[in-house]
């Protein structure tokens, strides 16, 4: 495909983390910068968003930071949630409820029992046409042969069971990373959708092995799994769509160092075994998450063109997700449409600078703070320093 | 097993990296500190050791640093090597030749052709009773479905083919990490052995995901793979033995940070795409390698006891490897024998301090150098800050 310009109907990101405080101030405006006009915001804050009131207040804070972006809220699935709260949330525009692995398996190896305790919630969600967003992984359990590589596959039985029990409940399997997950969603009915992140369309396990910038959960898997994700996007399957799972982490957490964390053992030897994990490994891990909000639509265009799916860009970043969620109002979609221009990656320095992913984003208040200060609010984006094949035409 | 003391016949480490320069000064004496009296030293220096003369000079430099340790040398398999040089090396006590993936597959997807070009070398090695040490991984190749998770399995056909071609050539499959590799070695004849590292007896993929301290090549795999390694050690199979693959890296390379590396993207944006890898990922990776030399035998005892194989400790760390390599001279073995004492991991601070793995080892000349200086020669060991269950009784 050799088009020089593409018009994309109002892109929507159906899975994004916008944080709180200074980090939220830095990244929330990036949603629009990345070409997205509708952001479906995850509730895993501290504390998590478990009530309509919290959700309403949080969305207000986001709108104050980016008035032109449409923010849609979610609740964190927890025992505190009640059918009455679900009904209230629905009336107040909260669109979905997110289930995290932790919630799946409290006091349980399989998690099934725990999902059953949530059936009254799902019943009310189905009635209110709310979306159930599933982080589709079971917790690792070496004794049971479960690790980060098969945690998603092991979860799929839960997806099938909930779907059978609530065939009219709209469910989204979030950030699928495996062929088995893609096949499972395809097998389900029209009420089951699936988000695919751009970074999982690009990475395999080799790309995050020893490379914190690309480390995220679920982890990128085998080449064949990546192929399955690319194929279903190229196929334009209507129930697979963009959810970036863009997750900003301060650079100091992404690249822990002797300076910001102390040599791993130093902590341990200083405070005894408290710093030791069950396996006995010293805690000095890199935060899991890839940040793509600020470059999202140009990145998606570049990646899809790379595997011959540029003609499905609008389906992936806008049409499929909006239709599944019911945000396909014609006027809204046309108002948010954007135009992309192919970047001349020859030596034209102007277009180069425009399409080169920034090395790092720093909150204005922290510009003068040295990098060695772990509290510095700065985020390194995915593909930092690399050139994108497409850029947004700003009017 | 509730023994309070164990005597272990002269432990031998049949796969260790002792580096050069200041790093070698720091780690070479650690071999004896870890309880090991014979160190089979890898040749991947800069430049690699490809001649008898280089090997001889290198071993001399190591003996100067640790006169009581027996160092055995190897050559790096490369096109420069000749049958004549093999004969010369054998006469001068060089015991083996190490093949690295790079050497396996130059200008080749499968590597088979390249091994055949080395058949004259293998022929002479067989005649000289030299050992062929194989790093058993083929290079990752996403298009062919090969990644770090199946690179070892894909290599096994090469092991079988070389063994068929040279049934009398002693071959060691190094640092096995998978059940398939263990089964492959078992299927081979008595001339094929296999080293297993202590860290692969402990780690699975979850333990290095986002944790640079535990990241090494080959990467730790699934729980079932770890089980296979533990089982073959517990079985006391005579052709499986200790090769630590202890590989020291400066902390700054193990935990890259904004300070020592600059924000990843900064490098890229400063120097264009030179810092970008084929996948487009910014180069800011963590060095692959786990450092265990300084705590080796106590670590092995602690781990083996953890999975019920303490009674096979001598087979794993001494008897099996020495017999396979022919270093089982009774006098040498008895002279190097050591005694281990169980550590009271109650509150006895004395034994605690003795058995707590140091947070970091720093070369004396760098004690005053700040951690933020990337050139600082300091190494964080495996299990830093954690307590070992056994300690060496020093006489």
From TrEMBL, chains A, B:
<feature type="domain" description="Amidohydrolase-related">
    <location>
        <begin position="8"/>
        <end position="266"/>
    </location>
</feature>
<dbReference type="GO" id="GO:0005737">
    <property type="term" value="C:cytoplasm"/>
</dbReference>
<keyword id="KW-0378">Hydrolase</keyword>
<dbReference type="GO" id="GO:0046872">
    <property type="term" value="F:metal ion binding"/>
</dbReference>
<keyword id="KW-0479">Metal-binding</keyword>
<dbReference type="Pfam" id="PF01979">
    <property type="entry name" value="Amidohydro_1"/>
</dbReference>
<dbReference type="InterPro" id="IPR004721">
    <property type="entry name" value="DHOdimr"/>
</dbReference>
<comment type="similarity">
    <text>Belongs to the metallo-dependent hydrolases superfamily. DHOase family. Class II DHOase subfamily.</text>
</comment>
<dbReference type="GO" id="GO:0044205">
    <property type="term" value="P:'de novo' UMP biosynthetic process"/>
</dbReference>
<dbReference type="InterPro" id="IPR032466">
    <property type="entry name" value="Metal_Hydrolase"/>
</dbReference>
<dbReference type="GO" id="GO:0004151">
    <property type="term" value="F:dihydroorotase activity"/>
</dbReference>
<keyword id="KW-0665">Pyrimidine biosynthesis</keyword>
<keyword id="KW-0862">Zinc</keyword>
<comment type="pathway">
    <text>Pyrimidine metabolism; UMP biosynthesis via de novo pathway; (S)-dihydroorotate from bicarbonate: step 3/3.</text>
</comment>
<feature type="region of interest" description="Disordered">
    <location>
        <begin position="256"/>
        <end position="276"/>
    </location>
</feature>
<dbReference type="InterPro" id="IPR002195">
    <property type="entry name" value="Dihydroorotase_CS"/>
</dbReference>
<dbReference type="GO" id="GO:0006207">
    <property type="term" value="P:'de novo' pyrimidine nucleobase biosynthetic process"/>
</dbReference>
<dbReference type="InterPro" id="IPR006680">
    <property type="entry name" value="Amidohydro-rel"/>
</dbReference>
<protein>
    <recommendedName>
        <fullName>dihydroorotase</fullName>
        <ecNumber>3.5.2.3</ecNumber>
    </recommendedName>
</protein>
């Amino acid at each position: 495909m050799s088009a020089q310009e593409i018009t994309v109907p109002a892109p929507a990101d159906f899975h994004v983390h916008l944080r709180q405080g200074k980090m939220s101030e830095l990244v929330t405006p990036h949603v629009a910068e990345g070409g997205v006009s509708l952001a479906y915001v995850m509730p895993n804050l501290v504390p998590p968003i478990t009530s309509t009131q919290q959700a309403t207040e949080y969305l207000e804070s986001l709108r104050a930071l980016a008035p032109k972006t449409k923010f849609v809220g979610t609740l964190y699935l927890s025992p505190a949630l009640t059918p009455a709260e679900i009904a209230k949330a629905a009336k107040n525009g909260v669109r979905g409820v997110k289930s995290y692995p932790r919630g799946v398996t409290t006091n349980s190896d399989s998690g099934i029992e725990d999902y059953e305790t949530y059936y009254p919630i799902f019943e009310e969600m189905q009635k209110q046409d709310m979306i159930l967003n599933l982080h589709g992984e079971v917790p690792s359990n070496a004794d049971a042969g479960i690790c980060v590589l098969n945690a998603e596959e092991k979860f799929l039985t839960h997806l099938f069971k909930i779907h059978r029990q609530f065939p009219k409940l709209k469910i989204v399997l979030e950030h699928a990373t495996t062929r088995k997950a893609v096949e499972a969603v395809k097998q389900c009915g029209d009420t089951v959708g699936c988000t695919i992140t751009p970074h999982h369309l690009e990475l395999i396990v080799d790309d995050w092995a020893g490379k914190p910038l690309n480390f995220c959960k679920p982890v990128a898997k085998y080449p064949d799994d990546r192929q399955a994700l690319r194929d279903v996007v190229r196929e334009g399957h209507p129930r697979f769509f963009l959810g970036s799972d863009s997750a900003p982490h301060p650079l100091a957490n992404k690249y822990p160092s002797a300076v910001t964390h102390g040599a791993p053992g130093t902590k341990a030897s200083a405070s005894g075994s408290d710093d030791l994990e069950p396996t006995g490994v010293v805690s000095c891990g890199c935060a899991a998450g890839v940040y793509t909000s600020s470059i999202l639509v140009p990145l998606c265009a570049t990646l899809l063109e790379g595997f011959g799916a540029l003609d499905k860009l609008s389906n992936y970043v806008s049409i499929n997700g909006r239709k599944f969620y019911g945000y396909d109002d014609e006027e809204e979609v046309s108002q948010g449409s954007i135009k992309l221009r192919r970047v001349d990656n020859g030596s034209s320095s102007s277009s180069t600078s425009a399409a080169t992913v920034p090395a790092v984003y720093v909150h204005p208040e922290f510009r003068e703070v040295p990098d060695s200060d772990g509290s510095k609010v700065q985020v390194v984006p995915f593909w930092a320093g690399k050139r994108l094949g497409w850029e947004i035409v700003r009017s």
